[in-house]
Design a protein that fits this description.
single chain; about 375 residues; DNA Methylphosphotriester Repair Domain; Arc Repressor Mutant, subunit A; Double Stranded RNA Binding Domain; 4 domains; 4-stranded mixed sheet; about 45% helix; globular
Length: about 375
């Protein structure tokens, strides 16, 4: 950080809460690169603002102010540090942008591109590109291509003349490999998916709770949805749109016990909501979900910490995406995933519900 002395500058931006400020300060002390982009910190005695990961000697806490963006720090009269360049894209942001461009290339190509082709486009060696791509997305380039194919075939199955036409349209060149992978990717056989879940038997119920309304749905294998909503009808419509041709059955005695356990857990979360689940996802997503289930009630973990726990440090954005894909609230407790500074973000059922669930868990 620059150390040129200037007159103290006023902190024009509203201060974060005391707890958030302390979490941000700990990120600064630890020079946490995962906090870069979440906020910047400014030093009143120098008039300079920095990234949380700035390698310079830390300032005194009483001289530090936090801002959500570089623009806010600049508007308050601070200038960017010449060492960490907080007003320019960070090396991590540049890396992420290269990976994003590679993802777009993969998404627009029906055939699989070679690792060498993608690496050359990104300006990296194949080995380095493979490692960086997996760190950011949680998948290898080949795995990402397979996931794109899965999305294509899911869409094509709804309109193509036949299942065979659908998987060829999506870029699969092997029927055997497609049928081998399809159940994990689609959650059912290609034929049943094409028929909108025809042949699936789904029990479901909608009930009021203190967080609004909640729907619980299950196949014969286990719970396939626990979702919050503002109305019973909206939740009913959502599950039927997901499986338009499935056979919906009334709740039996065993399923009613599952519903009761879900409602009890929402109101008084204790331990683990241990129910059989029937959810599909990529290998990476399932690893993230298993890690979330291992976080004790009342505790949280940052997306970066979760990425480290699954052996892929730096893949925190991919972890956040996996959390967003979760459709079984509380059973897979994605509400326990937070930002590096401890603040809340990214809950598909609303941040107010996420905050309330965490509040209830901490009261235990």
């Amino acid at each position: 950080m620059d150390t040129e002395s200037v007159a103290p500058l006023p902190n024009a931006a509203p201060q974060a809460s005391e707890q958030l400020a302390e979490q941000r300060w700990q990120a600064v002390v630890g020079r946490d690169p995962q906090a870069d982009g979440e906020f910047v910190y400014a030093v009143r005695t120098t008039g300079v603002y920095c990234r949380p990961s700035c390698p310079s000697r830390a300032a005194r806490r009483q001289n530090v102010a936090f801002f959500d963006t570089p623009a806010l720090a600049a508007a308050a009269g601070y200038r960017p540090c010449k060492r960490c360049r907080p007003d320019a894209p960070s090396p991590q942001q540049e890396r992420n942008e290269r990976v994003l461009r590679a993802c777009r290339t993969i998404e627009h190509s029906l055939s699989a591109l070679s690792l060498a082709q993608l690496a050359q486009q990104a300006g990296m060696s194949p080995h380095h590109f493979q490692r960086v791509f997996k760190a950011v997305t949680g998948l290898s380039p080949k795995g990402y291509h397979k996931a794109v194919q899965a999305r294509r075939v899911a869409a094509s199955l709804q309109s193509a003349p036949s299942v065979t036409d659908a998987f060829y349209d999506a870029g699969f060149n092997s029927a055997g490999r497609f049928y081998e992978e399809a159940p994990a990717l689609l959650g059912m056989s290609p034929g049943n998916y094409r028929k909108g879940g025809a042949g699936e038997h789904i029990r479901h119920a909608v009930a009021p709770c203190t967080l609004g309304w909640v729907i619980v749905a299950a196949t014969r294998k286990g719970v396939c949805a626990i979702e919050f909503g503002e109305s019973a009808q909206a939740l009913e419509d959502r599950i039927r749109a997901r499986f338009p041709q499935a056979r919906f059955e009334p709740a039996d005695a065993g399923f009613e016990q599952w519903i009761a356990r879900v409602l009890e857990y929402i109101e008084q979360p204790r331990g683990v909501l241990d129910l059989p689940l029937d959810v599909q996802g990529t290998v990476f997503q399932r690893r993230v979900w298993q890690t979330l289930q291992a976080i004790p009630a009342g505790e949280t973990a940052s997306y970066g910490e979760i990425a480290t726990r699954i052996g892929q440090p730096g893949a925190y954005r991919a972890v956040a995406h996996a959390c967003a894909e979760n459709v079984v609230a509380v059973a897979i407790p994605c509400h326990r995933a937070v930002r590096a500074d401890g603040s809340l973000a990214g809950y598909r059922w609303g941040l107010a519900r996420k905050a309330e669930l965490l509040k209830r868990e901490r009261k235990k």
